[in-house]
Every structure is written in structure tokens, then in C-alpha cells.
Batch of 2 targets.
Target 1
Amino acid sequence: MNVVVLLKQVPDTESLIEINAAADGIKAENLKWIMNPYDELAVEEAIRIREKRASGKVTVLSFGPERATTAIRTALAMGADEGVLINDPALGKTDPMLTAKVLAAALKTLPFDLVVAGQRAVDDDSYSVPSAVAEYLGIPMIGMVVRQEINAGTIRCEQSLQDGTAVVEADLPALLTTQRGLNQPRYASLPNIMKAKKKPLETRNLAAIGLDAAQFGPGALKTRILSLAFPPQRKVCKMIPGETAEEKSARLVQALHEEAGVL
Amino acid sequence: MPNGILVVTEYADERFRRSAYEVVSEGRRLANQLNTPLSAVVLGSDVLAAAAELKHYGADRVLVCDAPELRDFDSDRFTSILFDIVTTRQPRIVLFSASIRDKQLATRLAAKLDAGLAMECTGLALEGEKLIATRSMYGSKLIARVAIEGSPQIAVLRPNVFPAATVESAGDVERVEFKPADARVRLIEKKPSASKLDLTEADVVVSGGRGMGGPDFSVLERLAGLLGGAIGATRSAVDEGWRPHADQVGQTGKVVSPKLYVACGISGAVQHMAGMGLSGCIVAINTDPDAPIFRYADYGIIGSLFDLVPAITQEIERRREVK
Ligand SMILES: Cc1cc2nc3c(=O)[nH]c(=O)nc-3n(C[C@H](O)[C@H](O)[C@H](O)COP(=O)(O)OP(=O)(O)OC[C@H]3O[C@@H](n4cnc5c(N)ncnc54)[C@H](O)[C@@H]3O)c2cc1C
Ligand SMILES: Nc1ncnc2c1ncn2[C@@H]1O[C@H](COP(=O)(O)O)[C@@H](O)[C@H]1O
């Protein structure tokens, strides 16, 4: 059973995000980078699948700049077996659809029975890459999984829906995305962090996965960020005065009625 | 030459989602600007009668695929039907609402068509022929203006942001034949949640954090019940096992934009704000006058939620009785 995890490195959710001079991207300097939180769940689940069967391997696949190797190493320290980074100097800006094309092409060069991805990356919040990868590969996709079980060639999952959950089943190979509740990701122990340094981590360019870099220029983008801005500042918070809970509540409800018009 | 606007609506459990009306209304607004026809698509079982309702939101034509095998959502089946509809009718713009299901559907359709897509849009504008979307990124820390390239242009709208507006249209309902594709993901069992109202569609969200001190959310439930709202929670409250994961609001939970968000016993971490910062009006109730939540809220009350929430509930009830 071979599992590939799609892993994205994103800015730490606590970081201060700054807009670049052209206002079409963020300043990459001075940021702390982490593994996308949903991808931690994906790495953990993949490792558990391998541990249960004591066979096969977990490959972590990321498309991104050189610095993304740090996130891959973290996954290796958690227990993944190998890492592959797709990085090509010829590539400029990307978008989710382009990313999915690159990842799908890379997956075609890797053996897998299951692909595990996060439901969304907390930087672009695009919720798109996994569905598009599944579409490009022509494999079934099960979104927002909170529980899974594999039995001879089929995977059964419980998934979050808008109004509850559903239990569904598909034949492998398939792709699933993670939802919180699936597992509690482990921390990498110090000895495992040391061991991870010796695990294979390979960087490949587009040609190595059968893609022509010339077709990935700016013209290939399907969505283009025209500008970035900070959201409008909220008005200063009105603190509701009063001696008792009743007094404060009466003032609040009145304000919600008369000023805010929301009740 | 692509022409017209197509909106995909979601029909589940014998009703349209509220967001279906929002997405049709936004489609109407754009169709008026482009002077182009608006079609709405409904996929489901026994939906023919209900489908006519979309005419009241301005659809010129309602396209209906009605068959028992469309009762439950199936990503493969729905994608292939939409792909056929889009390739035969060639709309220039396709709109969806950002439910769990339609985010997947829209993405698969975009991949199949090699089209551009903007997810979780909070605003749409036309610049000449081009659809420009506004969407938040980096956990609501930034707002991006995004050009959607290619054809059709696909935009997926965040629920509860675009207004639904009734306008009469002399539209017709057309039954569309389709080839049923194989479903590769087999549905074994559905487990509906206790509450029918989804957090992302609720006008009012009353949320509790670690300040709740335990799994008893009854004071919040009473207020939410009175206002027809839904209950949300912070990750801390979810991690404690006080609330289900589906209730989590934030960067690794749901993103909501209700008219009123009441944060009770919530400190206001950036990861929580990422999920509710775009709410219309934010009320914060916290014992700590220095809690960061007061920097983002519109109204703040210092005090214990266990005193204040019941008092607020009572005050609203009292006012309603007077009326
Ligand atoms: C990668 C990552 C992702 C995350 N994603 C999310 C997410 O999606 N959503 C999320 O919410 N968090 C998320 N977090 C966690 C976040 O950083 C905070 O830890 C969390 O939001 C804090 O929850 P809280 O406000 O309930 O708890 P606390 O920060 O402990 O705050 C509790 C508050 O309750 C107040 N209080 C106590 N008693 C009372 C009382 N009786 N009446 C009124 N007030 C009272 C206290 O003064 C305090 O301000 C994430 C963190 C990380 C690292
Ligand atoms: N550049 C990337 N490299 C590897 N995986 C990615 C990349 N971008 C997105 N993903 C995967 O797709 C998921 C959803 O990302 P997104 O569609 O960008 O919100 C992530 O959680 C990852 O599992």
C-alpha cells in the first residue's frame, strides 16, 4: 500500500502578512513557514495506514520553492519515508489549477494506491487543488474525511457534509482530503528529526515529470491576482457601560436594535 | 461565442439552500449589466415543481435534470452532467455557491473545462468583458482582487454575503436529458446532523470558547434559538470535546459571515478571527477587559457570559412581548 501525501508549506498562521511593492503578492521575507495544518493530518493518516499494514511507503510530494524542503523534512521526521519537491526556476507565478496540473503530472511518475491531501491550504484558501488533481488523474475523490478504513482494494470513509456526515466507499486508487477530527498529528521526536536528515528527498524539475516549462508561463494562469489590500478597519469597539448584567444587556439590545439594526 | 450566465443551485432535503437564491440574484445582477440571458440549473429528484421558484429571483430559464439517481449528491455524476450542459450551452460565466459540495463540483468542472475559477468570492464586478472577483486570503488577513481568465469564467460565492432579491421573470422551466455517468463513490449511509441550520448560512451565530468552562452550551443555545441562529465554537472548545468539529469557526474551521456574531468567552486569536472577521456586527462578551476580541468587536461587554447571555436573552424576549 503506497500513499502519497500532497503537502504545502504556508506562512505560520500567527505571522504578520505584508503586501509586496507591486501589491500582487506577499513579502516572503521575515515569515515563519510551517506545514499547512490540514496536511499535518494527511501525513499522520498516511503514516498510520502504513504502520497498520507494515508494508508500502509514504511519499510526501510538494510543489514549491526550495524552502518547502523544510516542511517535507518535518513530514519525514514524523515518519514519512521519502520526499519529492517539484521546483523549477522556469516557473513564475502559479495558481491552484496550474499547481494541480503539476502535482498530477508528478503523481503519474510515483507509485500510489491512495493520495491524501488537505481540504484547503490556509494561505490561498482555494479549496481546489485536490479536486482538480483527482480530476486530472481520473480517480475518485472523497472530501473532508474524518475516519477511513481500507479493506482489500476499497476505502470506506466517513466524511463531513453540509448537514451531517456520510459514509461512502470507493475503489483504490483514490484521493481523500482531511478534516479536523481525523486524527491527532504526532510530534516529531528529536531522534526522528535526526533520522529524517538521511531519508531520501529529491528535487525534480518540470522536464523530469514530463512537462514542458514553456507551457507554464504567465499565459497559463487561469486566475491572476490583480491586487492585494488589507481589509477595511473596523470601527472602534463600543464598550457597553452599566452596573448590572441587566443594565448592560438592556443597553446592548437597544444598540443592536437602533444603531446596528441587526435584531 | 460564449453567451449567457449559468448559475448552479443546490437543492437538498426537499428544499433549495438559501444560498441558491443568493447566487441566482447575483447572476441576475450581472446578466442585466451584460444584457445577456440568465439560466439556473437544478439537479435532483422530484425537483421539477420546486424549480419554478427560481424564476422569482430572476432566472430567465430554469434547466432541470430530474431523476431518482440524482437524489443524493454524487460528484462524478453531477460533474459530468454540468460539463455536458456547459459545453452545449457555452455560457460565458458560471456561478456556484461555496457549499462543501459545490466547491468540489466547481473545481472539477473548471479542471475538465480548463477554465479559470475563483473560490469563496465576496464580491464580483465586471471590467469590460472580464469578471473580477474579490476574495479573502491568508486567513482573512488580505483581500485580493482576482481576474478570472479563460472561458467560461467560474466564480464560487461565499454564502450569506450576496443579497437574495426577488424579481419576477417570465422564465420557463426546461427539462434537460442527460446520460447518467457511473458513480465511483458509493454512498453507504447518511448521518444528518441534529441541527438543520448550517453555520455558514445562519444570519446569527452565537459562539462559545474556553470561557464556557465545559460542554454545557445551553445558555448560548437559548439565545441562538430565540434569534433563529446557529452555535459556533473555538478550536479550544472543540479540542476539549465540548462541541463537534463541524461547529469550529476559524482558519481551520468554517468561515462564516452572519449579520450578527456573538462571541462568548472567546479571547480573539487570529485563527479564530480568520473565520468570523467578515461578520456584519460582532458582539464580544468577556470577563477580561484586555481580551484581544475587543479590538475587533463592534460592541463589547465586560462580564461573565453566564450572567450576561441569559440577561440578553431575557431582554430580547421582553422587547418582543412588548411589541
Ligand atoms: C494552526 C492553527 C490553527 C488554528 N485554527 C483555529 C480555528 O480554526 N479556530 C479557532 O477558534 N482557533 C484556532 N486555533 C487556536 C487559536 O490560536 C486559539 O488558541 C483559540 O482560538 C483560543 O480559543 P478560546 O478563545 O476559546 O480560548 P482562550 O484563548 O483560552 O480564551 C478564553 C476566553 O474566555 C474568557 N472567559 C473565561 N471565563 C469567562 C466567562 N465566564 N465569561 C466570559 N468570558 C470568559 C477569558 O477571559 C478568555 O479571553 C488555531 C491555532 C493554530 C496554531
Ligand atoms: N503547492 C502544493 N504542493 C503540494 N500540495 C499542495 C500544493 N498546493 C495545494 N496542495 C494540496 O492541496 C490542498 C488544498 O490546497 P488549496 O486548494 O490550495 O486550498 C493542500 O492542503 C495540499 O494538500
Target 2
Amino acid sequence: MNRHIDDAVLNDYVEGLVPEDVAREVDGNLASCKECTARLEALALLLAELAGPPHDASPARDLWPGIQAQIGAGGAVSISRGRAAGNRIFSFPPAELVAASVVWTLLSGGAVWMALTARQDRAVVAVTEVTETAGARAESNMVLPVVGAATTEYERAIASLEFILEQGRDQLDPQTVETIEMSLNTIDRAIGEARQALSSDPNNAGLNRLLIKYVQSKLRVLRQASAAIQI
Amino acid sequence: MEDLERYAIAVTEAMPGTKVDLERAIAGLPKGAREVLVLRDVQGFKYREIAELTGVTLGTVKAQIHRARNLVQEALER
């Protein structure tokens, strides 16, 4: 009887991280072990659900499209920069940054959706075009010199949306404005912390990617808010 | 930050659609497990990058993520 596939190996196998000889061994096991096959299928399904968009006709009502927009930034970047793996490579403690990232990955899209009606009829077309270009640069070609250019383009788009929001804030319910401002303040704090960390370690690819994600989240919140304003 | 986490959980519980159970399962993870799971499986960071960001070894990150996935699966099965 075959041994069951080790949990760590199964996870690596699903993610395509095992060497060929191990993959062949796993394939052989899967061919004869229903339990391991079921574990594999469940794990693959979970990863697909975590990464994939929902089949939902109303994207503004769901926070997953926002998360989905952040997926795929898997450019070939090295974060180590000549230091030993496992060591912290910047002095600023990143725990707050990471925690903030996780919190408003869950929070920002959903909170603003909850505060706003799902009015989608007023697209900010020019801003969308600019930010999609920046997003493509930031995500499909994630090398460090590009990060600065992408964030600059995002910032231009953010400034435009902030102007729209400022002009139309009277059209929104005060509680809605409060929710939007809370989300934006959280994101701004995280952006500030990321920038502070980057000032000590400007070549840290992971921090640069975090900064991009924070800025993208701010943009997402502003887009949702602006879409509810009639100008 | 604790307030925000509570709020995040409240938000995810209130979200419509088919992902509610999954979002709730993620929100119910221990803080460290939730962080690494979201960074890896939702945001697509590499294991090495997560190790650098969180200041722990690559092996520890992988173990944390595997555990987090197991916890999410268990929560979904309940």
C-alpha cells in the first residue's frame, strides 16, 4: 500500500514547486490513492477560490474583484539583494504593514461597497485608462524602476478622483463619507509607513510591491466613491 | 488595529455572494495565519518575499501557510 502524500509535498505539488522526480512520485501515488486525490482536489479548489474572481454580475458589490486585481503581480523579482535568506532586510518593523495590508484587503472594498449604493453609471473613463496602464506596468513587468513610474501615474489618478470626491461629498450620506474617510485614512497610514520603510531600503522589491498594492487599494476606494457622485 | 480587524470580520460576514463562507473562514484565522495566507494565496506574494516581509524563515512561512489552508478547509467543512 502506498504511503499518503506528505502535506507539505502536496501543497508544493499543487503550486508546481516540486522537482520532476517528486512530481512523478506524487503522480504515481495519486493514480492509486483516492484519499490523496481527494486531498489534492480539495486543496486545488481552495487555492482557486482564494485566487479567482467570483462569478458575480455585480462586481462593485463584492470585495473579491479588488483582491483579484492585486493578483498576478508575480514578476521575476529578487527580494534578497545579497542578504541571507530569512533575515529582515529593512530595519522598520513590517508587522504593521503586513497587518494593514491584510486588514484592508478584506476591509476597503467591502466597507465602501456597504456605504455606497451600487451606482455604476458614471464611469471615470480617463482615470480608468490611466490607472489600467499603470496597473499593467506595475503587475506585468514588476521591476523596481517601474514601480516609481507606476505609483506616479496612480497618484495622478488619485488626485483626480480626490477632486471629484471633494466636489461631490455633499451628495453622499455623512455616514458614507465617514466610512470612506476611515478607509482612506487607514490606507494613507499604510502608504506612509511603506514609504518610510522604503526610505531605509529603497531596493526592497517586497516593500515596493506592498506600496503598489496600498496605492491600488486607495484607488479602488476612490473609484467606488466617485462612481456614486454625479458631476 | 484590533478595531479594524473586528470591523473587517463584520464586513466580511455581511458581504453577499458565494464567497461569504470563505471570507468568514479567512477572517476567523489566527492573525499570523491570516496574514501569510492572504499575502500568498490572495495577493500572490512569493514565499521568499513573505519570509522577508514577516522576518521569519522560508520554512516557517510555508508551514504557516499550509496550516492556514488546513484551518480554512476545516472551517469550510463545519
